[in-house]
């Protein structure tokens, strides 16, 4: 599966074949067929694996329940954890944040379904934060979408220019920005 991922990232989905995967893995085609009956099953297994990795990382980055956490610190730490996850598994996150031309519909569907799930979690955290902190009357749905869009863009920048756009830099930025939005505790 790692060889298939490598081929996808280097040549795009159009360049993926059992032959290409075998060549990158340093094995023969029959060895690949011993593990996967066809290219579709190999790609499905790869997508499922990468989806599991990314969702596990997001579970750690975005708590289900914020508890008594300061919303400003919670959000800044969540962004940091997400970006650390991106930096730790760049191949996985390239598939999600930097989709290649020709990305199959099944991959796009998985990504969009999981984005919707994560958006709902962010909305819950934003709502909890607004209930705990004063500040402006913000639209929860739009706030959550803005946070997700900014986090995804930050992830792209971490992937494409990691020296300039570090997780620590984004964490400081988010905390400073959120202190402007939520300047005081209730």
Write structural notes for this entry.
The protein folds into 2 domains: 1-35, Homeodomain-like (Arc Repressor Mutant, subunit A); 47-181, Orthogonal Bundle (Tetracycline Repressor, domain 2). Helix content is 74%, strand content 0%. Helix 4 packs antiparallel against helix 5 (71-88). The longest helix has 28 residues, at 105-132. It contains 9 helices and no strands. It starts with a helix and ends in a 5-residue tail after the last helix. It has helices at residues 2-11, 18-25, 29-35, 39-61, 71-88, 90-97, 105-132, 140-160, 167-181. The model has no long low-confidence stretch (mean pLDDT 90). With 186 residues, it is mainly alpha-helical.
The helix count comes to: 9
Element string (H = helix, E = strand):
HHHHHHHHH
**What form results from the Cα inertia axes?**
elongated
CATH superfamily of the largest domain: Tetracycline Repressor, domain 2
Distance between the termini: 51 Å
Give the total of domains. 2
The name CATH uses for the topology of the largest domain is Tetracycline Repressor, domain 2
Under the CATH scheme, which class of the largest domain?
Answer: Mainly Alpha
Poorly predicted regions are none
Number of strands: 0
Average per-residue pLDDT, rounded, comes to 90
Radius of gyration: 19 Å
């Amino acid at each position: 599966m790692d060889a298939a991922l490598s081929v996808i990232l280097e040549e795009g989905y159009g360049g993926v074949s059992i032959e290409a995967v075998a060549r990158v893995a340093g094995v023969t085609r029959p060895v690949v067929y011993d593990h996967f009956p066809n290219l579709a099953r190999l790609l499905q297994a790869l997508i499922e694996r990468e989806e599991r990795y990314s969702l596990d990382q997001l579970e750690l980055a975005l708590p289900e329940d914020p508890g008594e956490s300061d919303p400003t610190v919670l959000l800044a730490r969540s962004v940091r954890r997400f970006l650390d996850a991106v930096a730790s598994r760049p191949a996985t996150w390239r598939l999600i944040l930097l989709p290649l031309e020709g990305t199959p519909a099944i991959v796009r569907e998985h990504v969009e379904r999981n984005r919707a799930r994560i958006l709902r979690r962010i909305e819950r955290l934003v709502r909890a934060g607004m209930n705990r902190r004063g500040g402006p009357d913000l639209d929860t749905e739009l706030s959550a979408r803005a946070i997700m869009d900014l986090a995804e863009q930050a992830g792209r920048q971490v992937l494409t220019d990691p020296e300039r756009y570090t997780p620590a830099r984004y964490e400081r930025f988010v905390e400073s920005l959120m202190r402007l939005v939520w300047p005081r505790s209730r």
